[in-house]
Specification:
Distance between the termini: 40 Å
Order of helices and strands: EEEEEEEEEEE
Shape: globular
Length: 114
């Protein structure tokens, strides 16, 4: 059973930074794609960053230039560095890993105050 555990969320003022971490219970080499999603109250879950096993990254325009996803294969960990945070970034952030199926973490709350 694959487990993904997120950490690093919290309360930060607008313009601040946070770094989220997602630790997998297995080697992340098995996942061809890993990513971070977020879900704000009353809204659909949306992708904020993705990284392939080869290191190719993808971001939506809403976070491009502010968020950076990276992976440390030796630590079975994927990170999301979030800079210049805005109140609209407030959401629960979920880690996702994909092989033949998708796995999800429990999520970590990020709150950005204005």
């Amino acid at each position: 059973q694959v487990q993904l555990v997120e950490s690093g969320g919290g309360l930060v003022q607008a313009g601040g930074s946070l770094r989220l971490a997602c630790v997998a219970s297995t080697t992340i080499f098995r996942f061809h794609l890993m990513g971070w999603y977020r879900q704000a109250p009353g809204k659909q879950r949306e992708l904020v960053a993705a990284i392939t096993s080869g290191g190719t990254t993808n971001y939506p325009d809403s976070v491009k230039g502010r968020f950076t996803i990276s992976r440390d294969n030796a630590k079975n960990t994927v990170y999301l560095q979030m800079n210049s945070l805005k109140p609209e970034d407030t959401a629960v952030y979920f880690c996702n890993a994909r092989e033949s199926r998708a796995y999800w973490g429990q999520g970590t709350q990020v709150t950005v105050s204005s």
